[in-house]
Amino acid sequence: MDKIVTIAIPTYNMEKYLGRCLDSLLIKDSQLLSLVEILVINDGSSDNSLEIACKYEALFPNVIRVIDKPNGNYGSCLNVAFQEAKGTYFRTLDADDWFDTDAFSSYIKKLTALKDKADLILTAYSVESGKSIFHRPQGEDSRICSWSKVDIRALHYGIHSATYLTEIVRNIKLQEHICYTDIEVCLYALPHIKSYTVFNICLYKYWVGREGQSVDMASYRKNVKHMYKIIAKYLESDSNNPISVQIHQYKVISSLIRFYYFVCLIYPISYSDKHDFQKIDRLLSSHWPKLYKIVLQLKFYRIPFIKCWKNMPAWEFYLFSLLMKTGSHILSRRRY
Prior knowledge:
- The protein has 336 residues and is α/β, with parallel strands linked by helices.
- The chain has helices at 18-23, 30-33, 49-59, 73-84, 101-113, 166-169, 182-189, 217-222, 224-235, 243-266, 271-287, 289-297, 305-311, 314-335; strands spanning 5-11, 36-43, 64-69, 89-92, 98-99, 120-128, 132-135, 145-146, 162-165, 195-207.
- Strands 1, 2, 3, 4, 5, 6, 7, 8, 9 and 10 form a 10-stranded mixed beta sheet that branches.
- Helix 7 (182-189) runs antiparallel to helix 10 (243-266) and helix 9 packs parallel to helix 11.
- The longest helix has 24 residues, at 243-266.
């Protein structure tokens, strides 16, 4: 039977959470479930993640497929999944997150009911951090629309909301052995998206607060070189994309740039990282003036810290950065 959607689950040392993740996909309607392909890509885990995945595969052999590979980080898992996917549509699910099971059932029904294919399907997601914060794309349910003039921030476009036509992601090649390559998926799919639709369901449950999570500030500091590689690849590319596509990409990449600048300006970094940061700032200011204008407006907790850095004397910004660091630490502790 043809698969309507492939769900790719990159997995590295997720034995505590993988069962919850997979259970959330196992809807009771066996006919609907048979339309789903679940790819668990084990990224060289050293815990029991592979054994857990294989047990689920044995129970649901026509739905769940386990791919075991050497460690190569998130991008390497998705590169494999892009080529292995058999579903008409493709979306990702992190192993420490989960889907709302009832919403997943509705999601499959809506996919099968679409009269025409859409390049992109957007669903709502919630951030789970002690309380649920919902992000809902606005639009008429299941109506296929043109993508060219939309405001992707109003649509909450991102990896947690996006389902792509598989033929689009099959041509994307992500960097390997680094974090944050979900940003690259969103960036490099954009030139190929011509149509989209919205399903008015909240599907994805994005859990924030796990120790060691890549979106934790400590991880941003540790992996600042990873952010540099993603930003540099984009800035050094020869983009011939239409202006409308570039504007969409600016909105996607600017979120990563905000954290990159924050880490490099507020926290101590190595000489090599300082050199990288100076290179990024020069590239932006000299070759990407429209994007740099956006960057100068970026804020952290409502404070335009990049503009402050540009305009303040060095000693004054040093004191300012200490206050920013302290405030960020207090706010992040309160958040989780």
